[in-house]
Every structure is written in C-alpha cells, then in structure tokens.
Design goal:
- 40% of the residues lie in helices and 23% in strands.
- By secondary structure, the chain is α/β, with parallel strands linked by helices.
- It has two domains: 117 residues, Orthogonal Bundle (Arc Repressor Mutant, subunit A), CATH 1.10.10.10; 241 residues, D-Maltodextrin-Binding Protein, domain 2, CATH 3.40.190.290.
- Helix 1 crosses helix 2.
- The longest helix has 21 residues.
- The chain is elongated.
- The two termini are 49 Å apart.
Length: 373
C-alpha cells in the first residue's frame, strides 16, 4: 500500500485491485515489495528495504500468483529476482499514479486541515463522562452492554464541576441539569455561564422536578422552603458543587430563607437516593431531591422547580462512535422507561443535539442571556 503524505498529519493510501471477472486486491506491502525487487534484484534485500520479513515477502508473492493467476516475480537460483512484465507494469503504474496524485494535493491542503478539524479528538482511553446524579440515568448506565462499558468511564460529579472539567478537557462529556422556569435563576445563570464556548453541543435527555421529600406519615406537612426553619426539623442536603445543591441555594435565596438557620444544611449525601434513604431510615425528616427519588422510596413530595437534564460535549466529539453508541443506549433506555406505565414514569425529551447557545435560550430562560458573548 502506497502512503502519500498530505500534510497536517494526514496521508492518502493508494491500494490496487486487479480485476477481470472480479476484483483481486493486491495485499498491503506487495506493491512496495515489487518496487524494491526492481531496485535491489534479490528478494532478501527487497524484503529488508520494504520492512517485511523474508518469510512474509515469499508469502506475498506466492499468494499474489494464486490470486492474480500469473506471477509478478520470477526467481531463479543464482540469478536473483526479476519482475515479470505484469509485475513491472504494476510497479510502474503505481509510481506514475502516486506522482500524479502528489502533484494535485497541494491545492487541497486547506481542505485537509478543515477535514482534520472535524474529526473526533484522538483518544488513548475510554470516553470519560462526568455526570450529575439522576436515578433514571444511573439505571441506564448500569445496563450498558459490556462491549460499550469497556470504552466508557462514568464518574459522578456535580453539574458545575462536570462542565468545568469539560472546559479543561478533563472529560469528554458532562452531564448536568438546570431549572427551566422562573425559579432558581441563579442556578440557571451558573449553568449557562459554563455553556458559552462556541463549540459546545448539548443533548437534552429528560425533564424532572426537584422539591422537598418527606414522610407525611410522621404527621409532617410542608408548604414551602420556609418550613425548613421549624425548630427540630432535621434536614439532609446534597454535597457542595452538585447541581441540586446549587439549585437549592438559589431557591433559598429567592425565598429569603437563610441557609445557616436550616438544621442539617451541612449534613450531606452524594445522590438523590442516599438523601431519600436517610428520610426512610428516620435519621432525617426532610431532604431536597427529585420526584423520581421520592416515588422510588415511597416518600411524599412538594414540587418546587422544573428541570432539564442534558449531556454536553465539544463539537469534534460528535462523530465519536463510542459517544454516539452511549447516547443512543441512554435515549433508548429512557424512551422505553417512559413507555412503561407500571414503573416510575420518566419524562424523556426526544430532540436532537443542538448548539449550547440554542439550548440555553430554549431550556434555561432564567439565565437571562448569560450565555451570550
């Protein structure tokens, strides 16, 4: 196979197929071996120059004779190796075509650089996904096929932290969520501030609701965030940096509820399920989390804010086969969960990926133009 450098790290590979009643492809390294035989006159020297072993060179010539139906090289004891007229024609035509193509590559250098810019970045490891916790996505991630799981690294992180790491190329995908209504404007602006890069692509995945989880069976009734100031009411929070913690802080500020006066504000768990489990166990009375977690743990729920959950990545990753397979699996799992009435319902968002600026305008109106610029 002839490799023709095109600049910017690209090369054009020229491979021949001799055909009469059907295509016969000349094996890789065969044509270069023919050129070296023409130059050196012996198979041993030609194999060394072509970078193949003597055994590999012999096998290439034997196989080509069987495939083509005629020898490309004649070898005689004491007289070295000589190309047949057919072998000479193949080597000569390969040189001529390569020279013609090389002369025409110069004007295409800009197109080559543009093409390379559209390719996914080179990776030596798995697709690294930093994602904020969601009950549905946790289930979908746990059901990844083994062939895909071997090429994906899922790590729980907060929404802001995940987007920050994406900006620093410390991951390829960030899973985040933000409020879609008028509540939690500060949280919406914080998310939008991390979606300003022009090359960011966002894939909306599902809608969900955040609010207060509690057990009405204990005689507790909640009407709003001000109830968190009740004496003796034990709260359990999410960890700093999580999107849920950022949202709660925004809602507390909007409701003029001082966080420092909430008993248990600094008691932290890392998932919605862990928060719900603390309430079920009786070690806490109320927590802030998703309606899904409340339903899964049979808790009462006071809705406070609508949200959208999405994945973000940089545009060159859009062509990555592993990423596309991961997103397809998650979307398919969420869609099937949405269609299963016997399970906790999932509000799947069936839309195509979009530029981050369009996502902010369409789904984060509370950001107030924070993504412009």
């Amino acid at each position: 196979m002839r490799r023709l450098p095109m600049g910017s790290g690209a090369e054009l590979r020229l491979r021949w197929a001799l055909a009469r009643d059907g295509a016969t492809v000349l094996e890789e390294d065969l044509v270069s071996l023919l050129r070296e035989i023409s130059r050196h006159g012996t198979l041993t020297a030609a194999a060394r120059a072509a970078g193949v072993s003597y055994r590999k060179a012999w096998a290439l010539l034997s196989h080509s004779t069987a495939e083509v139906g005629a020898p490309l090289v004649v070898m005689a004891r004491g007289r070295g190796s000589v190309l047949t007229p057919l072998g000479e024609a193949v080597a000569r035509l390969d040189d001529a075509v390569a020279a013609t193509i090389t002369r025409g590559l110069g004007p295409q250098s800009d197109e080559v650089r543009h093409l390379l810019g559209l390719l996914p970045p080179a990776r030596n490891g798995p697709v690294r996904v930093r994602l904020s916790h969601d009950m549905f996505l946790s289930d979908a991630g746990a059901s990844l096929p083994q062939a895909l799981r071997d090429h994906v690294e899922l790590t729980l992180d907060g929404s802001i932290n995940a987007l920050f790491r994406l900006g620093r190329a410390e991951c390829e995908v960030a899973g985040f969520h933000g409020p879609t209504g008028s509540e939690g404007r500060t949280a919406a602006r914080d998310i939008a501030a991390n979606l300003v890069a022009p090359d960011l692509v966002v894939q909306p995945l599902l809608r969900r609701v955040q609010g207060l989880m509690y057990r009405h069976a204990t005689g507790l009734t909640l009407r709003g965030l001000h109830d968190l100031l009740r004496p003796g009411l034990r709260f359990v929070n999410r960890q700093p940096g999580s999107g849920t913690r950022v949202l709660l802080d925004a809602l507390l500020a909007e409701s003029s509820v001082p966080a420092a006066k909430v008993d248990g504000y600094h008691r932290e768990e890392f998932t919605h399920g862990a928060v719900a489990a603390q309430i079920v166990a009786g070690s806490a009375d109320v927590g802030f989390g998703t309606d899904t977690a409340a339903q899964m743990y049979a808790l009462d729920f006071l809705p406070l804010c609508q949200e959208i959950y999405a994945f973000a990545w940089k545009e060159p990753m859009s062509g990555d086969a592993v990423l596309n397979a991961l997103v397809a699996h998650l979307r398919d799992t969420l869609a099937r969960r949405c269609a299963a009435p016997e399970e906790v319902p999932c509000d799947f968002v069936d839309v195509a990926p979009m530029p981050a600026s369009l996502f902010v305008a369409q789904y984060l109106p509370g950001a107030g133009g924070a993504s412009e610029g």
